Amino acid sequence: MLILPNDIIPNVLDLAAIIQHLPTAYEQEYHAVNITIHLDDETVAWTFHFSKLQLCVFINNHHEGISLVKSLVNSIMTNQLLPVHDQTAFLQSRPFSFVQGFYSTHVQLWELGHLLGEEWVKEDILNLASELLYFRLALPCRDPSFLFLPTSFLADAQWCYSQTPHFFSPELLVFRHRLALTEVKLYGFIVWDNDHFAGYFCSHPRLLEHGDMLHHSLASDVEDVLNWIIDGVEPHVNIVMQSVALQGIGGSHGSCGISAYNFVETHVQPGVPQWDPLFSHNFRDTLLQDLLVYHNISQNQNFSFFDCVQPCDDECKDLALGYSFGLTGYNEYNIYRPLETHPIFEFLDQNLPGLHPTQLPTV
User: Fold this and answer.
1) Which domain of life is it from (predicted)?
2) Does residue 186 fall inside a structural domain?
3) Residue ranges making up the domain that contains 173
4) Using CA atoms, how far apart are residues 170 and 322, in angstroms rounded to an integer?
5) 140 assigned to some structural domain
6) Each residue of 162-216: pLDDT tens digit?
7) Same domain for 270 and 155
8) What is the mean pLDDT of the chain?
9) In a domain? residue 80
């Protein structure tokens, strides 16, 4: 049974009474029902097979996902975001399957539709972007010198710091270990606070830069918490505010996460332009393009994370397996270096169309 392009999908609330009686009707050997639908000034009579009614219920239950997938298909085809073979692969994908190639979190393909327009970008998507950038800057079989910590990093640290006595979660112990005993020169993270994202980047001992598209001041405890984490490993830091384009000019009201990610990205990718509200859609499209192309490559390689990486050292791996009391914790990709089989290297060989505002006309 198929849903055709011009079929009407009734609201699940309008179907509730019918759905309730389907089992009894089926036992009485009924297999279809006549439904009259009033649309604006038009009345339409339809005959629905019971199985098609169940499809309608499914569509209602997954309305957000189906709607975003439709928008994704339209945007990808209209704006030519992907090479032809990647377009074809996306159109053949199951929208409720997971984006492949990542360890940090699980995101279904349809959720990437939040990168369109000025939709609020969820933490999980930002964590995919952070993981991709981390491995993007890594060399095969070498300890990455840049860490891009997940969005849970500071929130978990604040909770650990608030306890009496303070304690380090396994992830914080790993971070301290990476700073002390491996060649980490740079690190960044995105903070979610009061439904808003801001970016932080440390490139020089004693200096942590803070970028916020709303120009908010930083949370009062950030400096204390971070200095507690790095105490005895690195010199204490002072946080300085950096200039970031202000949200709201020409839109961009849902792009604080994109701006925060870009704040970190521009520090480690000098050719990337700084986020600009007038070109907000370009930054979103670039990230969408990267995630989809990387997904296709990983899927074609039958990606298995632990077959493509190795721990920076055994102590990192052992620390990450520690007990975290069930209240903190995340899948920490920053303890791994990529092997030559990692899909990131095929991804880096791709010649993708430029979508940043330096490469596109003003829209």
Assistant:
1) Eukaryota
2) yes
3) 92-351
4) 5
5) yes
6) 999 999 998 999 999 999 988 898 999 999 888 889 999 998 778 999 999 888 8
7) yes
8) 87
9) no
Q: Are 335 and 286 in contact (CB under 8 A)?
A: no
Residue in the block written with tokens 């369109």: 116
pTM of the model: 0.83
Task: Say how many C-beta atoms besides its own lie within 10 A of residue 234's C-beta.
Answer: 17
**Which residues are within 8 A (CB) of 37 and not within 5 positions of it... i.e. 6 or more apart?**
8, 10, 43, 44, 45, 46
- CA separation for the pair 353, 272 (Å, rounded): 14
Q: How many CA atoms lie within 13 A of 338 on its CB side?
A: 23
Structure tokens at 170: 């396994």
Tell me the pLDDT band of 360, cut-offs 50, 70 and 90: very low
Domain contains 73: no
57 plus 136 within the same structural domain: no
Cα-based torsion angle of the residue sequence 10, 12, 13, 14 in order, rounded to the nearest 10 degrees: 30
- Cβ neighbors of 308 (< 8 A, separation 6 or more) are 338, 339, 341, 342, 343
Considering the domain architecture, whether residues 98 and 29 belong to the same structural domain is answered as no
**What is the β-pairing status of strands 186-192 and 309-311?**
unpaired
Cis peptide before 361 (omega within 30 of 0): no
Pair (219, 316) in one structural domain:
yes
Who contacts 16 (Cβ-Cβ below 8 Å, separation ≥6)? none
